[in-house]
Amino acid sequence: MTMSNVSSNTACTYTAAPKRRSVLATIAHWFRVYQTRQTLKALDLHSLEDIGISPAEARKEAQRPLWDAPRHWS
């Protein structure tokens, strides 16, 4: 196939590779995740109701591994 046979409306999409963190940045991120999850676990029932989660959900979130966090938490 020659270039003249390729349709001009063919789109090529590339996704950028995720940015890699330094070791220190990764450790700092994990520490923030840990702190956030421990704070969530320590909330009282009224506060948990305000944010719409149950005590069981808060405990479950607090028990997740440090590396198991959404990308937008970076």
TrEMBL record:
Domain (YjiS-like) ranges: 24-59
Alphabetical list of InterPro entries matching this protein: YjiS-like
Top-level taxon of origin: Bacteria
Name of the protein: DUF1127 domain-containing protein
Species: Harenicola maris
